[in-house]
Design goal:
This protein is of the alpha/beta class. It has helices spanning 8-22, 39-43, 55-59, 115-125, 144-152, 163-172, 203-216, 219-225, 239-246, 251-254; strands at 51-52, 66-73, 83-84, 86-91, 106-109, 137-140, 158-162, 179-184, 188-189, 192-196, 229-232, 258-260.
């Protein structure tokens, strides 16, 4: 979910550490990661061994098709181990102090299937929404990085960005210099590592290898990924995301209908 070009080396190193520990356990782990343009091609594959995935599909459309293994912990301030949250961002030169001041303005989201880039915003805005949609316009960027750029360049007034992606942006995306954090959403289980339902029998071995690999990483791999640990957790932990979504009868009436855009990018990055 955080596969930015600038950190692909450390991500590949993480996978090598996992794969090297899986093979002695009898699991035929591939040497290299597969990075399809469409993440659903990966997530729905019956051959899926290990992948990061957004919590929203796990709680909704892919429920029963993938099994949660656990979650990487990125040390998000104010969140329990293995959890994360989103940040609501606006431009530094925007004088608006609170979220209510962005009513009838323009928002950018990741996409309707993203918890951190959309669902968390719906849950946050719902108490403020009266009659009619809160925002005048809502556009889908396709990626957290492109949401950062959209706000920085004035294509939107407010964006919702995964806190870990925001920190990667501070490291690598110049657009963050023009932005500030307006507020944060409540914490939720972090994007989980999953395996295909057909590999459920490997769950214990997969988690043993992942836990050992993460604990073995040196600072040169951990630091670029803001990676602090790994938490084994059940699929049921992600029911809270489904409950948040179900609590809002019609998200379109709360935030507004999402308009597709020509923004480049891919979900989760």
């Amino acid at each position: 979910m955080y596969d930015w070009p600038e950190v692909r080396g450390p991500i590949d190193a993480l996978w090598v550490a996992i794969a090297d520990r899986l093979r002695p356990l009898g699991v035929d782990a591939p040497n290299h990661l597969w990075r399809p343009d469409d993440p659903y091609q990966l997530w729905t594959s019956p051959d899926l061994l290990v992948s990061d995935i957004c919590g929203c599909p796990v709680a909704a459309g892919l429920r029963g098709r993938v099994e949660v293994l656990g979650a990487l912990d990125h040390g998000v301030e104010g969140c329990p181990f293995g959890d994360y949250r989103s940040v609501l961002i606006c431009r530094v030169d925007d004088p608006t102090e609170g979220l209510d001041g962005f009513a009838r303005r323009r928002a950018v989201v990741n996409g309707a299937d993203s918890h951190s880039g959309y669902g968390s915003l719906v849950a946050t805005v719902a108490p403020l929404a009266g009659n009619g949609a809160f925002f005048e316009k809502v556009v889908a960027s396709g990626s957290h990085r492109e949401s950062i750029r959209a706000v920085a360049e004035g294509r939107a007034d407010l964006g919702v960005v995964d806190d870990v992606s925001w920190r990667l942006g501070l490291d690598h995306e110049p657009g963050t210099d023009a932005l500030r954090v307006l507020s944060v959403t409540k914490s939720a289980p972090a994007p989980p590592l999953v395996t295909s339902w057909s590999n459920v029998g490997l769950r214990d071995r997969l988690n043993e290898a992942i836990s050992d690999a993460v604990n073995s990483l040196d600072v040169g791999v951990r630091e670029p990924l803001h990676l602090y640990g790994y938490l084994v957790r059940p699929t049921s932990d992600y029911a809270v995301i489904a409950e948040d979504l179900a609590a809002v009868d019609n998200p379109d009436l709360v935030v507004g209908v999402i308009e597709a855009t020509g923004f480049p990018g891919s979900a989760g990055t």
